[in-house]
Fold:
Amino acid sequence: MEELIQMIRRGDRAALARAISLVEDGAPGSRELVRAAYRTPRNSRVIGITGAPGVGKSSLVDGIVDQLRSAGRSVAVIAVDPSSPFTGGAILGDRVRMKRRTTDPQVFFRSLASRGHLGGLTRATGDVLTLVGVAGFDDVLVETVGAGQSEVDVMKYASTVLVVLTPGLGDSVQTLKAGILEIGDVFVVNKADLPGADRTGAELEMMLDMRPQGGWRPPVIKTVATSGVGLDELARAIDAHYEYLKSSGNLKTRVRNRFLASIEDYLKREMVDKVLKAASTSGELERCLAALEAGEDDPASVASRLAARYLTAGPCSPLVRSEG
Amino acid sequence: MERKIRVLVGKPGLDGHDRGAMVVARAYRDAGMEVIYSGLHRTPEELARMAVEEDVDVVALSILSGAHMTLVPKVIEHLKKEKGGVLDVLVLVGGVIPREDIPALKAAGVAEVFGPGTSTEEIVEYTRTHVREKRAS
Structure:
């Protein structure tokens, strides 16, 4: 695995691709791989791109990649599309819009399926970002699945979040709602050649002006991704936000949040898996389910009891081990 | 859990007909596979890059333009170039391919050619069986 890391560092694109698959699949050896990756210096700038399906995220990614390359920066793209909840299959179509830098050696593109993970990304996101960082890309663009209102995971992983909208997505009440509109560092009104773009822009500006003053005021930028209108301004806004993060000390917080999000993910996985497995082996899960069916128990009480029993007991519990 | 099968459904060259590619992509999806769709008008070089970066098991090319004898060997050539001379993915071709061209395509490295009238079940079954064989070897 150490060898694979070395190959990634040397810029071997097949090695990076293979490593991402290993991590995604949780294959044997992937833990070791991730362990080595986190211990390798890396400092990619992570830019998240989110918004409803069809607003033009993929086309914007194509345009932003082109802008960043023109500025001499190497770029990796991680694009997530949903998996079918029924078959586990997926159609990953984010490459369809990639037109400009398709064989540029300083660009890497990888599509990931969400594999049942909610929140707009996939479970492996944090580890995949670290692997891409090992490869030494200056920038990583993370494109979420077409997001509704509450897929806000991207804010945990990106240092700059672009929220993409288009004209005609609803009236001003929509901009008051909680959720995705709260996480934007830069707002993009794409397809700005359509009627209503000015109004959408103005409503966003109003919403942003109602926020507490001080700190970073997210700009609202109008773009037409397919023709390139506004992309240079967008690239400047991304740079400006990054400068703000660095000078205000917030960059450190964002990176920390990313690590925290990954820890949280692993913890949930380990703890939930262990408790359910232990409770099912001992037969207690079955008894709890029967009690629930008979109307003699409730899920919250069951969960507390199982957690108390299987998480804290014994030196093998994941909590104790992760501290040791 | 078995590793997910990843498939690149590619449209090389100048033909703009992707209904067949879409139907096959959908069939793969419904069979639980992860399908990367290339979009139209891709060059052999672009498709090879995609196959490497997406770490796919299968490259399924859909061609209805009649240019398969030029395009398919070029895709395979680039695939080999990207992987140090080895063709380690299953290359499938679908579309309008005259029967007399099939031996030459297979000689170039294509595993199987699926012409008009092939059922999606057959394509999915072939893919699943041969990916398993390839992984086991």
